[in-house]
Amino acid sequence: MDQKTQLELFSHAVTLLGGNTATARELGMNERSVRFILDGTRRPHAGILEDMAKALIRRADECREVERKLSPAFAANLTEAQEKPPLHDGKQRLGMRTKRLTPDQVAHYERAFGLKD
């Protein structure tokens, strides 16, 4: 891999970890060292790259854990209201009822719109 590509990947990893400060904290280094790597003043050595890889794996594991607790694909993650499917008009079944027309009102609208003589 060339140095430019490695620096672009390192920069992307810094963004994924939450920026310079969060990355410095995660890697156990000061923020200035992270900036020096990002601006090309210093090259990251293999140990920093290894620590970055481990930090990304930890973040991915945390994200996966939260996703599994949040995803509606797992029935246990749904609230009581979410377990009931919505009505066709998007209203949740929370005791709300759709107002129905009486037969007289239906007949009135049919005549008004010329649907029935």
Protein topology:
Layout: H1 3-17, H2 20-27, H3 31-38, H4 46-70, H5 80-83, H6 103-112
Helix pairs in contact: 1-4, 2-3
Question: CATH class of one domain, anyone?
Answer: Mainly Alpha
Shape: elongated
Low-confidence stretches are: none
Report strand %.
under 5%
Distance between the termini: 80 Å
Strand runs, count = 0
Averaging pLDDT over every residue, what do you get? 87
Query: Which oligomeric form is depicted?
Result: single chain
Rg value: 29 Å
| SSE pattern, N- to C-terminal | HHHHHH
Question: In DSSP terms, counting alpha (H) and pi (I) runs of 4 or more, how many helices?
Answer: 6
What is the helical fraction, as a range of percent? 55-70%
CATH architecture of one domain: Orthogonal Bundle
Classify the secondary structure makeup into a structural class: mainly alpha
Provide the CATH topology of one domain: 434 Repressor (Amino-terminal Domain)
In this structure, how is the largest beta sheet organized?
none
